[in-house]
Design goal:
The protein has helices at about 35-45, 60-70, 130-135, 150-155, 165-175, 200-215, 220-230, 240-255, 260-295, 305-325, 340, 350-365, 390-405, 405-410, 430-445, and strands at about 15, 20, 25-30, 30-35, 50-55, 75-80, 90, 95-105, 120-125, 140-145, 160-165, 180-200, 330-335, 370-375, 380-385, 415-420, 450. By secondary structure, it is α/β, with parallel strands linked by helices. Pfam families: GGDEF, SBP_bac_3. It catalyses: 2 GTP = 3',3'-c-di-GMP + 2 diphosphate.
Length: about 450
């Protein structure tokens, strides 16, 4: 059960949970909140009328469970992920820091995740990196730990080959545990962009106050906090004894060329270092291009294909139709609420509503069907190798399921749908326009019905 919210936050304490084992970012020490997040919460409290009350937990997984169930209203420091977005609202980012790949000191430099290969990788359960790797690098051999300290001990004892961790906490735990055989082998994307996570039941009132307080923190305070905790330099060590022995033996045989070998060797090392830097930049660029490619073809709110991607897929289907004369149908669905029907306002539908409709479409259509948010409150479904009769059945089912969705009923919305089958010498604009006329005919008939184009 969620906590009561009848009192205002000026009268009631804001309960919060932390990651108890992520020092120096966020931690509990003798029951007290310490670390970077604790300093920022003190600053937020000083810049607002909010009063915070700690709800202790024993692990990060438990903290996420508490904030999801409402046993605490917010968590003090975390990254934004699609899974967490289902039950949390996020404040503005107030602290950023890099993530790193930690390995034993006999490991070569790793050029991002693509350079890990078949090595076993450790990651903390529930952290953003665990979700990121499972989504974008599913072939990596992952092993999950409750904390970075547990993962570092496993790395030192050869149970895993690489650990993904946060720079400051990795340095702290390596020194605290006196682990001498570990090194930073590379950087890991994406960097930490940390903010407060608020249970959505409390977000409307709490989120604006937190953002206002974060905006009011002077830049000098941000710099002071970063300098205080960024006090450990990265060291990368290598065993150069085999190389030294080889050089000494070579110098006994060819003394005349010893000086020349040293000069060439130094030049080759510089060249190798530059080559590694270029490889790192290439890897980073490749990962960012993947992200841009996804964003360029998908709607940011629903995750469905966007307008441009739908047009491209439709033109491909039209070319297939012209070559093989296979049937294809188009369904256009649009939502209107009472205000839109009465033309008294132009308030857009909520993001929750759009996500709910997108989910219904994806679970109702076939795998071969293409679903897109075409703009505003309009969704388009293209059905390859589907005649008008089957498309009409699908459209009727979509109208029925969407109309009975909780979010649609809650926002008093009506559903209109138009259906048409592709005809000869017809391009997408004409196909879409003809389907749109059927959609408008559905509206004139009073909504919640799918109409077939002439």
């Amino acid at each position: 059960m969620l906590l009561a919210t009848t009192e205002t936050f000026a009268q009631q304490k804001v309960t919060y949970c932390v990651d108890p084992n992520w020092y120096p970012y966020d931690a509990l020490h003798n029951g007290e909140h310490v670390g970077i997040a604790a300093q920022y919460m003190d600053l937020v409290a000083s810049q607002s009328d909010l009063t915070f009350e700690l709800v202790p937990t024993t692990s990060w997984s438990q903290s996420l469970e508490y904030v999801q169930s409402g046993q605490c209203m917010m968590v003090s420091m975390l990254n934004h992920t699609p899974v967490r977005e289902q039950f949390l609202a996020f404040s503005e980012v107030y602290f950023e820091a890099p993530n790193v790949l930690v390995a034993r000191d006999d490991t070569p430099n790793l050029q991002g995740y693509d350079g890990i290969g078949k090595r076993h990788v450790g990651v903390v359960k529930g952290y953003r990196q665990a979700e990121y790797l499972a989504r974008y690098y599913p072939k990596l051999r992952l092993r999950y730990f409750e904390s970075e300290a547990e993962g570092l001990l496993a790395l030192a004892s050869d149970d895993i080959d690489v650990l993904v961790g946060s720079l400051f906490s990795v340095n702290h735990n390596t020194a605290r545990l006196r682990l001498k055989n570990l090194m930073i082998a590379g950087y890991a994307e994406p960097y930490d962009a940390l903010s407060f996570g608020i249970n959505k039941a409390f977000a409307d009132e709490l989120l604006p106050r937190l953002n206002a307080a974060i905006d009011a923190i002077p830049e000098s305070q941000h710099v002071e906090i970063y300098r205080r905790w960024n006090n450990i330099k990265i060291r990368q060590t290598r065993n150069f004894w085999p190389l030294v022995v080889v050089l000494l033996m070579a110098s006994l045989v060819v003394v005349f060329f010893f000086w020349r070998r040293r000069v060439v060797g130094a030049y080759e090392k510089q060249l190798a270092a530059k080559t590694r830097e270029i490889d790192v930049l290439k890897t980073t660029l490749l990962e960012r291009n993947r992200t841009l490619e996804f964003l360029s073809s998908h709607d940011a709110i629903t995750g469905l294909y966007n307008r441009n991607q739908m047009i491209q897929r439709a033109e491909e289907e039209i070319s297939r139709f012209q070559r093989f004369q296979t049937s294809a149908s188009l369904i256009v669905i649009e939502l209107d609420n009472d205000d839109n029907v009465n033309l008294s306002t132009n308030q857009p539908l909520s993001e929750d509503m759009l996500k709910a409709v997108a989910s219904v479409c994806l679970t109702t259509v076939r795998e071969v069907d293409v679903v897109a948010r075409f703009g505003g409150e309009q969704f388009v479904i293209m059905c390859p190798q589907t005649g008008i009769t089957a498309a009409k059945v699908l459209a009727d089912r979509l109208v029925e399921v969407i109309s009975n969705t909780h979010q649609v009923k809650r926002e008093h919305c009506f559903v209109a749908a138009g259906v048409s089958s592709l005809t000869s010498k017809e391009r997408f604009p004409e196909w879409y326009e003809r389907t749109g006329k059927a959609l408008y005919h559905s509206k004139r008939q009073g909504y919640n019905v799918a109409c077939v184009a002439d």
